[in-house]
Design a protein that fits this description.
mainly alpha
Length: 61
Amino acid sequence: MKQTNNDSLPREPRRRRIARYLREQFGRQGRIVYRQALRGAAYCLGSGAVSLIVVWFEARH
């Protein structure tokens, strides 16, 4: 019976592995940046709305 292990499999060239790794990382980072931008915009709008309500409340009382 012949044993197979990962060492016997042909290895991917180093440049190709690095290029694949970078594509995966940049793709993932792009999605994270988009979510963070939306979260920041929502936080800014919410913070502005709360500030406006506080100022309005203080002016009325």
